[in-house]
Amino acid sequence: MQKLDTKTKILNAAEQLFAERGFADTSLRLITSQAEVNLASVNYHFGSKKELIQAVLARYLEVFVPSLEQTISSLNSQGDRYTQHQVFSCLIEPLLALNTFRHRGTTMFLQLLGRGYIESQGHLRWFITTHYGDIMVAFNDAVRQANPHLSKAEIFWRLHFTLGTVVFTMASSNALTDIAKSDFNQDVDIEDLIRRLIPFISAGVSAP
Amino acid sequence: MQKLDTKTKILNAAEQLFAERGFADTSLRLITSQAEVNLASVNYHFGSKKELIQAVLARYLEVFVPSLEQTISSLNSQGDRYTQHQVFSCLIEPLLALNTFRHRGTTMFLQLLGRGYIESQGHLRWFITTHYGDIMVAFNDAVRQANPHLSKAEIFWRLHFTLGTVVFTMASSNALTDIAKSDFNQDVDIEDLIRRLIPFISAGVSAP
DNA sequence: TTATATTTAAAACATCTGTTTAATAAAAAG
DNA sequence: CTTTTTATTAAACAGATGTTTTAAATATAA
């Protein structure tokens, strides 16, 4: 067990609380008490709560985005004909890799992403699109390549439907897997959940 | 223009602000100033902010749930063989009927529902399932009836995927329609959104 | 009418919010 | 070592929050 510095302790506590309770319902005092650091250290190291939120998400995006860029570009290098299922499959590896990067990292990342899209009047959405707009365009292009019959607008909507499906599922994944266990005696981990999601959203995006 | 009583003025202002900004980001002072009533009247008429939130949603559920119960039971009375599309149609009519009940009622209700499922640590979720659990079971039975080839577990997962798609989309519908307007010069109202959602979730549920 | 209950109103309440200050401690550089 | 920068701490700040109180106003009932 290595000794963590203050900045990291804050980030670790903040990401967990943000994912669980949302940004507005998580106070800096709750974060600092869980991180066992002084209250003022948040403003010292990050400037403001808003910048802390961005830093929490940035730590995941810095791992996830390059990983996704790689799987997308390797898909493109294999030719220009691929299915929607293959495009979404590009997401699986980078997403699951977050679980080795951090405990429950995949769930955490998707929950944070969802909260960022719903809460905070769009300032987090702005942060993501301005810092990681390239991969969003590349992914969007791949989806268009796989679905030449769909317009840009239609793809925009269906990708956001997809985001909703994934984010909501992850946000309530604990409750859902508990129900599946008690009602169907089904043991479902995060990897099963993603593999169950892919056919659903692939069919949805490629719908006529 | 009839003169509204304080209770109704509060509910009208609250539902609009809750749908737009979420529960945590909407203060009682913002609600009462928009409703042009005294601050203390919220606690006088509703007891607390939490109970106000429940009252806002209950006003919609009291209209929506009986309407849905009717379409579902009329579907069942027509025989025991119906398609999944028919089951979804049972949902559409009661939803759009909320638009005659109140201006932008459909959008408002679905946004509130979405926020209720994501925010507020599940106390609103509890309120809904304990007060309106019967119709949720009836709807689930109808879906099972329409999909005899799918296992209970499969239906369980895909219905929750569907719920996530709708709820997330509605919770962020303001931001999404803004983007669609600026990026594609597309004016999208709630009815358009629902019509775009149906093919997506239908294909998802019917996925191989 | 008078008497009673209900509703509104302004103010204060205690608590929580993010942020800043000023003093101290620790670390790094000279 | 001394000096200088960096980091931590406790305290206070100004403002917002939900809620309660107390009194006045309004409506209802006798």
Short description:
Two copies of one chain form a homodimer. Chain A has helices at residues 6-21, 28-35, 40-46, 49-77, 84-101, 105-118, 123-131, 133-146, 152-171, 173-184, 190-205. With 208 residues, chain A is an all-alpha fold.
Percentage of residues in strands of chain A: under 5%
Number of helices of chain A: 11
- Quaternary: homodimer
Average pLDDT, all residues of chain A: 89
Shape of chain A: globular
- Gyration radius of chain A (Cα, Å) is 18 Å
Give a quick account of the main beta sheet of chain A: strands, pairing sense, barrel closure. none
Element-level helix/strand string of chain A:
HHHHHHHHHHH
Task: Give the SSE layout.
2 copies of one chain form a homodimer.
Chain A: H1 6-21, H2 28-35, H3 40-46, H4 49-77, H5 84-101, H6 105-118, H7 123-131, H8 133-146, H9 152-171, H10 173-184, H11 190-205
The first copy, chain A, binds a DNA duplex (30 and 30 nucleotides) through residues 6, 27-29, 37-45, 48-49.
Report on the structure:
- The structure is a homodimer of 208-residue chains.
- In chain A, 39% of the residues are buried.
- The longest helix of chain A is centred in the first third of the chain and has 29 residues, at 49-77.
- Chain A has 11 helices and no strands.
- Chain A has one domain (57-205): Tetracycline Repressor, domain 2 (Orthogonal Bundle), CATH 1.10.357.
- Chain A has helices spanning 6-21, 28-35, 40-46, 49-77, 84-101, 105-118, 123-131, 133-146, 152-171, 173-184, 190-205.
- Chain A is mostly helical.
- In chain A, helix 1 packs across helix 2 (28-35) and helix 4 crosses helix 5 (84-101).
- The interface between A and B is large, with 48 and 46 residues.
- The structure holds a DNA duplex (30 and 30 nucleotides).
